[in-house]
Hints:
Blueprint: H1 8-23, H2 29-44, H3 47-75, H4 85-95, H5 102-105, H6 108-121, H7 126-149
Amino acid sequence: MSLEPGTCAPRVGERLGRAVHLVRRRTDPAEWSRALRQSQGHVAEGFGTRFPQALLASGGVLVADLAILTLCLRLMGVDAEALPLVDLVAAYVFAFPLTMFPAQGLGVMDTALLASFAETAGQGVVEPALAAVIVWRAVTVAGPCCWASSR
């Protein structure tokens, strides 16, 4: 396969189309080739300006999410002396890749965060941290779902 710009997508599309054609005879490999080439064009169009904007927006979402988690912890009584912000940020950054699991890592990321909080601040912080994580999840996961359904 050639790695020249614009030549890989049509070939991949045609090969995928042929594979699907074996199972579903109505599938036209040439149409799949055209569709994948068109899709690649849409992605490439303006990529140089949109990609940095997307990265900045994603970073903003992470900062907002971390701010909500921090606020929930502080409101539940986990003070900055027990769990400093730098330790909270470190726990969040290391646990964040667990959001790759279904439902944003619901349960998996939360458990990793709670284990990190307990290791850093001691066992006395587990109950208020658990309450904070539940509120944080309710605000960040259930909140947008309820807001979207009410529109």
